[in-house]
Amino acid sequence: MNGFLVGVGALIPSIGVGILFFFAMRAVVRADRNERAQLAELDRAAEHHEENSPSKNSD
Fold it and tell me: Which keywords, in A-to-Z order, does the entry hold (predicted)?
């Protein structure tokens, strides 16, 4: 039983670091996804504004 506890004790730090890494990477991926969505929305708004604005070269 003592050997089992030593083995579990040796794995706990690695598991903890793995969990922290998982949450950090999840935050990075979510931030990137949200940034890309906002940039796409800004691009759509800019295109919509360009389509509906009067043309400068309408001579």
Answer: Membrane, Transmembrane, Transmembrane helix
Domain map (residue ranges) of the chain: 22-48
- pLDDT digit string, tens, across residues 16-29: 999 999 999 999 99
Range 4-29 burial, b when 16+ CB lie within 10 A, else e: eeeeeeeeeeeeeeeeeeeeeeeeee
| pTM recorded for the entire structure | 0.68
3 state SS of 57: coil
